[in-house]
Amino acid sequence: MEHNSTRFDVAIIGGGPAGVAAALTAIAAGMTVAIISPQRSHRSPNVELLSGRTCSLLHELGVFSLLPDQGAVECSGIWSSWDGGSPVERLAPFMPRGAGWVVDRTVFDDAMLAVAKARGAQRFAGLANAVEFHDDGDWRVAVQTEAGRLGLRSRLLVLATGRGARLRQSLGAIHRCEDDLVAFQLWDETLASVAARDHMLTLAAAERGWWYALPHPAGGTFTGYCTSSVHAREVHASDLRQWPAWHADTPVPTSASAAPVVSRRWRGRSASVGWLQPGAGHQWAAVGDAACAVDPLSGQGVAFALESGMQAMRLYAAVRLLSANWQPEYLRWLQEVRDEHFQQRRQHYLASAIPAPFWQQRRAGSLAPDGG
Ligand SMILES: Cc1cc2nc3c(=O)[nH]c(=O)nc-3n(C[C@H](O)[C@H](O)[C@H](O)COP(=O)(O)OP(=O)(O)OC[C@H]3O[C@@H](n4cnc5c(N)ncnc54)[C@H](O)[C@@H]3O)c2cc1C
After folding, report:
1. Which atom from ligand 1 is nearest to the alpha carbon of 300?
2. pTM exceeds 0.90 for this model
């Protein structure tokens, strides 16, 4: 594997929230940082709610002002119909930093990367396609850029490649998949819904999964539907014609009643829950979804991404000059966070009384693909 003369203390693969949080923390601790992140070829609409916890972490990183500056929308609360009973409204006043902010993730991620660069990270626009640990104690990372292939060296490698943890095999780690969730998302620019008007996250359980809706920062409503891959295959098979019927019994506002339009515009993505084993090793750590992809239902994915990036780099920074071991503490922390997440997740599913297989399976604690 070729390499140029540039050597960094840390090479971070992936420029999402986890990678950037790791970069900002490493820079604050005096380290030199490379971030490898592909140039965006197209802009896919992806809207998420950054929870109050996420906002606190953004404050800690000194980047909270990005939210209002980038046109994010403050969320006034959550309106959920979860257990088959009447919808419940939870407003933000009792949450320390409000219910959160709704962001266009493309805008947010680009702004975060720009801050990392401004604070001193060197960005390599491309895909890392190979990593290797050498006897001299450095990693070599090969990066495919538009201009060709280049290489760089680093002391520490941070895997922040998101759900599925790309490049994990080179680290000898395995990906444990705990669920087969799939999400379908639609941005309807014209639908001024309840969610958009009241700036609320709307959440509703349905027979085969759950729906959510958020006000899109650029106007209209962003709707998502999470289901199992088994049901997702049925969706494809029926060309989404069943959706209006599935959707009819939920209170989530959307234009899903227009089936022909729906089949053209919904975008599918994996929402599977899983983690990397191990989540760190000799001079490397996984952070964010690459370390543990939490259930989207929790709304805590970005919070975990930020916190794991910060935590890994703080532990490393504390001992790196002594060449002491920092991984055991990071692995313990990951385990605790993961255990807590899975416990809370189970409680959420237990709170739904819907008798359909999707829910029965999750209430029973067996989260393997249902029906197949
Ligand atoms: C349907 C759905 C809804 C969600 N809603 C919310 C929500 O409302 N609130 C919330 O907090 N969380 C939500 N999440 C979770 C959230 O999206 C993730 O937890 C979060 O994006 C994780 O950040 P990350 O930096 O670990 O990974 P990512 O954001 O996935 O970033 C990984 C980056 O690595 C890059 N990359 C991958 N491979 C390579 C490579 N080889 N070389 C270079 N770069 C590479 C990718 O291009 C990407 O930019 C949701 C998830 C799903 C599936």
Report:
1. 11
2. yes
